Amino acid sequence: MDQSFSLILNAKRLFRKFLVDGYTMSESERLFFIRNQQKILRCESYENLRNQQALGSTNISNIGQRVILSSSFTDGARYMMRNYLDAMSLCKWFGYPDFFITFTCNSKWPEVQRFLKDTQLHPEDRQDILRRLFKIKLDAFIKDIRENKVFGKVQVVVYTIEFQKRGLPHSHICLFMHADCKLPTVEYIDPIISTEIPNIDDDLELYSLVKEFMIHGPCGAENLNFPCMVEKKCSKNFPKQFCNHNSVDSNGFPLYSRRNDGHFVEKSSVQLDNRNVVPYNKYLLKRYHTHINVEWCNQGSSIKHPVVIRLPFHLPSQQQVVYKADDDIEDVLDRPSIASSMFTSWMKCNEINKEAQKLTYVEFPTNFVWKLKGLIWKPGEVGYAIGRIHSVSPKLGEAYFLRILLNKVKGPKSFEEIRTVNGELCSSFKDACYNLGLLDDDKQFIDAIKEASLSGYGFYLRFLFVTMLLSNSLCKPEIVWQNTWEYLSDGILYNQQQRLKSPDADSVLSSNNRLITEEIDYDIPNLKNVFDRLFVALTNEQQDIFLDIMDAVEVYSLFMVMVEQNKSKK
């Protein structure tokens, strides 16, 4: 008996179920631990705890709020939103991504086939091997893009990994290019992105790879059961239109060169030409032998380079304190980390560092590093980082206006300096915003909508605008609309286009029907002679009826012919 034989690894579907059950058990244990901690962990502001201490209270188990599932729980709602906002911060800093790439796992990779050669297993029976190899290939792929500069110098790589219904992983990757390597016009696309079937005589390897991995379909009337079909229409909008050169449509989407050069491949007995080619890069396709869709984009997950630093802030003495319900209030308030937060440490750093005084709060991580040990900011020792200030709702009043000021004021040493304008101390952060001209002509609301557009969808922006209208917050709503209508209308045109009816597939299938062909294959002069002969034979009453019916054709009126029984209805 083979001592290396493992029953569980050769159990096929049972092994897959074992993996799912094992992961579920692990996640359940994590949630069970957090749920138990929820009973004892509470959160309250520093100021309220000081007030309780002043009143002589030592029991803090009944004040504050219970801690909910935090963003530290992987794949939780707050975890996903935090990473999403981090990615949107990159868009705010570097502009929109330049390339969108889909990298897919290939179960026929030679490494997989070699591993399964002497077994009775299929690739899907060893999901652990497939996913491990996919991650290795993905890391090599990203390294290839960054170091070998396939598309040029890359500043930022953002990616997320998803799993298809059939179990294979794939990754969506956004590339933010260096300013010197951005594609200025569509003419620069040709060397990077291809959407045509290569000549089999010129490059047999590339032809075979395109045929195997980069052809969409057949779908549509030829195959109504293809996965992309939704309501008898291809959800990916294939086949595309022939196009002799690269261009950009009215909505900003690229139209790649798809010449009608006569090249085609045959799949499922259907000939597919350049209209069915998924955009690809020749070098990457040859190197990785898998489906790699490369798209050029003008607009917009695990974050790679650079790091996004999340910057909390708070009103004076309003920083949140987490403690256990049975903790003593004196012990809680004596902790070194309680009175000093990342935000207040930033102001302390401004007191002693002249370079720090040249930066706003959001710019601070570009030159300084937050040291958790010691709770201090130090001049940058590692790579480039980007700051993201936590967003707040306008309903929070002073906190909202404080956030506005933090994007404008450089190097304040105290809360008072933040609300000091031209040497005059304002009574509130809102007054400071007014004195700086940040609230004139509803500018703060226009900026709020524009900032929200970096991370929110169109329907959210419209909801925000309606909330502003209903709350009578806008002085001149028409000015806000004129400055933000492009953001507020985002997605409306696309959604309406999706609702447009496409030709019924049954009609398409009937387009070559013999009876229909015979019906429309008529001789107009001959039919006119027949009409003239028959019309003259009509009685006056029949002619009146005929003319009434013909006049009503354009308005779709209805007519009923009623005659006595046993009478002819010709």
UniProtKB/TrEMBL annotation:
Residues 6-173 form the Helitron helicase-like domain. It comes from the Eukaryota. InterPro entries: Helitron_helicase-like (IPR025476). This is Helitron helicase-like domain-containing protein. It comes from Lactuca virosa.
